[in-house]
Amino acid sequence: MQNFTYSNPTRVVFGRDTIKRIGLEIRQQSIQKVLLLYGRASIFENGVYKAVTASLNEQGVEFIELGGIQPNPLLSKVREAISLARQHQVQGILAVGGGSVIDSAKAVALGVHYQGEVWDFFENRVRAKAALPVFTVLTLSATGSEMNQFAVITKEDEQKKWSISSPLLYPRVSIIDPLAQTSLSSQQTVNGAVDALSHIFEYYFDGLEDTDLQDEIAEGIIRTIIRHVKILVAQPSNYESRAQLAWCAAMALNGTVGIGHKGGDWASHSIEHSLSALYDIDHGRGLAVIMPAWMRYVSAVDYTKFERLAERVFNIYDIDAETKSLEAIISLRDLYLRLGAPVTLRELGIPYADLERIADNATIEAPLGTFKKLFRGDVLEILKLAY
Ligand code: NZQ
Ligand code: ZN
């Protein structure tokens, strides 16, 4: 296990009917005025907008609002929100939505205090020194953004979907009310489960040894996600399964599983971000295709962890290491198929002729990964396996 420091400063308020607490939570932080950010239609259809604004009004928290944040959120929208936040001199950003809205809020929170171009942070040209506090009301459990220090934004003119990481980006308070998620489509629920599983895998398969406790926790989260996402596909309103999946997704990327690791592998995420940047594909759908293909490409480097996954998650024993590893990868792919997720690039409508272009986009900053260092040629092979 590597040396580590661990701190997660996000205050989480979890459970039924907790959205009505948002006004009080903000006011208790001595904040009087926020920029309220949201996506397109969902929060108006499921009552979340009404509950949030009622709570803000009740507590006397002033707000100005900006909607229309799309999945795979855009830098242009972040810029628009930054000028609005400056113009109205807000003291905090309130994100109501899924990862796309929360990530936009984080970028806005950094950008307000920075006189240059906010994209500088994504290109690592400057280090973040200050940010407005971010509050979230989560409506889609997937990314873990509600409890972590990451944000992912697309610079559309250059087709770069890149991330930032800073301790300043942990939300100050996150409300996680699983009831708000009963309006999710089966596809969005599955996307969330696949994303959370992938976050676990990025650490589990980063090539680091001696992380036994972290691996036990990881396997527990994987088994729990699989159990409850299956229930939710059949019963979208099952509260207990919504609650379990919501907490799993937060735990998958709030630092707990990554403790003592080298920071994770993240090659599959980088490749998927290129799919989202080039074709506006849902992050979870892209991962369902890429992650099993990545596993097939790299597993021969060291079967140890793949064998462990086979035994602990898929109950596969009594065969040689190579076959056992392959069976685990096939079981994961079969699970995604049963959940209705795509498992090939062809299903995502991507032409075979585009694979070179995707490999170029994914390896602007190569090599990728830690389990096996991947260069452009490796990424191309993974894309072919995924086709
Ligand atoms: O726009 P609306 O109408 O609100 O609809 C949204 C959107 O279309 C809908 N939705 C959200 N909550 C709903 C709902 N529909 C019905 N009922 C609800 N309760 O879901 C759609 C997708 O929303 P989005 O926020 O895009 O999904 P997600 O939470 O999966 O976020 C994905 C984004 O986060 C990034 C991804 O790359 C992608 O851009 N990631 C962020 C990470 C982080 N910050 O730590 C890590 C991840 O690996 C990931 O890269
Ligand atoms: Zn992800």
Structural features, described:
The structure is a single chain. By secondary structure, the protein is an alpha/beta fold. The chain has two domains: 11-180, Rossmann fold; 186-386, Up-down Bundle (Dehydroquinate synthase-like, alpha domain). The chain has helices at 22-27, 42-45, 48-58, 75-88, 99-111, 119-122, 186-204, 212-234, 239-252, 267-279, 283-298, 304-314, 321-338, 355-362, 376-386, and strands spanning 11-14, 33-38, 62-66, 92-97, 134-138, 150-155, 160-165, 173-176. The strands form two sheets. A six-stranded parallel beta sheet has the order 1-8-5-4-2-3, with helices on both faces. Strands 6-7 form a two-stranded antiparallel ribbon. The chain is globular and about 65 Å long. The chain starts with 10 loop residues before the first strand and ends with a helix. The model has no long low-confidence stretch (mean pLDDT 97). The protein binds 5,6-dihydroxy-NADP and zinc ion (ZN). Residues 143, 195, 198-199, 269, 283 line the site of zinc ion.
How many discrete domains? Answer: 2
Instruction: Tell me the CATH architecture of the largest domain.
Output: Up-down Bundle
* Share of helical residues: 40-55%
Strand order of the largest sheet: 1-8-5-4-2-3
Number of DSSP strands? 8
* Low-pLDDT sequence parts: none
Average pLDDT, rounded to a whole number, is 97
**Number of separate helices:** 15
Content of β-strand: 5-15%
CATH class of the largest domain: Mainly Alpha
Structural class: alpha/beta
Topology pattern, helix = H, strand = E: EHEHHEHEHHEEEEHHHHHHHHH
The quaternary state of the protein chains shown equals single chain
Instruction: Compute the CA-based radius of gyration.
Output: 20 Å
Query: Which term fits the overall shape?
Result: globular
For this structure, what is the CATH homologous superfamily of the largest domain? Dehydroquinate synthase-like - alpha domain
The CATH topology of the largest domain? Dehydroquinate synthase-like, alpha domain
List all distinct small molecules, including ions and cofactors, that are bound in this structure.
5,6-dihydroxy-NADP, zinc ion
CA(first)-CA(last) distance? 36 Å
Biggest β-sheet, characterized? 6 strands, parallel
